[in-house]
Amino acid sequence: MSGRLEGKTAFITGASSGVGRAIALRYAAEGANVCCTDLDPHPRTLRTDDPVPDAIDVRATTSTPTHEAISTTYGQDHAAFTMVDVTSSSSVEAGIKFCVEKFGRLDITVASAGVALESFNSRPLKCHETPEAIWDKELDINAKGVFLTCKFGLAQMLRQEPLPGQDRGWVINLASIMGFVAIPGIVSYCASKGAVVQMTKQMAVDYAEDKIHVNCLCPGFVKTSMTQNVHGSAANLAWSDSAHPFGGMGEPDYVAKAAVFLASDDAAWVTGVPLPVDGGYLVR
Questions:
Q1: What is the three-class DSSP state of 81?
Q2: InterPro entries attached here (predicted)?
């Protein structure tokens, strides 16, 4: 039985860890060829310099790079890795070129690379306390990185013929529930994810005539290294349980399954949607 993404090729930033890794693995399981990109092929882990008592271990269960895990399961021809710095125009452009040279085309672009630098602060910082360097780096990676990934991904989709009987392409950006609502002490992160939501909607308008779907996923708190200070203490875990009506933090694969939907024929008439995958966080 063919997978829901059979014959498609996906370019994924931030594919080495967390949600990006989960999406890459899910896409491969659904039959897609996957070009994994990141600064390093190996999964990131929790910090070990300041261990928190009773911390949940959300480290990758293996140090195997994502593309190697896919190749082992589905064959060498189904995955590849190339280093991409999403803040660099030339790096992203080269990454797209590598993907097309390897697999012949590009059908799905997933902009998953992101950072939450405020999670490393010892306490929430208001705007007047936030270092300008944090603002610059988060907007550079979380907002400009999405822009550049879309810019070069969309250009490639317009250059090539669509798959037989298919639309021309699928773009999926990773935003956050913080693109809708705010929590204390993360002004840069909220701004960057709000930008992703609005970029997604605007691009959906521009590329609808080309039959390119542009949507974004807005996860709640998910168990990855990015949210380590949330899942790292009993008090934070209790807050997370109460904040998500489904209880607790989400798994990266929950978001990955939604990413499969948005890249499949099941979403044939879906574009411009910021889709919450949040265990009910936004309906509290």
A1: strand
A2: NAD(P)-bd_dom_sf, Sc_DH/Rdtase_CS, SDR_fam
pLDDT digits (tens, 9 = 90+) for 144-163: 999 999 999 999 999 999 98
Phi, psi of 55 (to 5 degrees): -65, 145
CA–CA separation, 118 and 124 (whole Å): 8
The pLDDT tens digits for 40-81 are: 999 876 444 433 333 333 345 568 999 999 999 999 899 999
Helix, strand, coil percent content, the chain, rounded in steps of 5: 45, 15, 40
**CA 230 and chain centroid, separation:** 19
Residue type at 136 in one-letter notation: D
Task: Give the residue ranges of DSSP H helices in 83-209.
Answer: 89-103, 132-138, 145-159, 187-207
Q: In this structure, what token pair is assigned to residue 217?
A: 């996923």
Distance of CA 68 to the CA centre of its chain: 19
| 189 included as an active-site residue | yes
Q: How many Å apart are CA 133 and CA 81, to the nearest integer?
A: 30
Q: Say yes or no to pLDDT of 97 above 60.
A: yes
Which of these is catalytic: 27, 74, 189, 254?
189
Count CA atoms closer than 13 A to 83's CA, side-chain side. 3
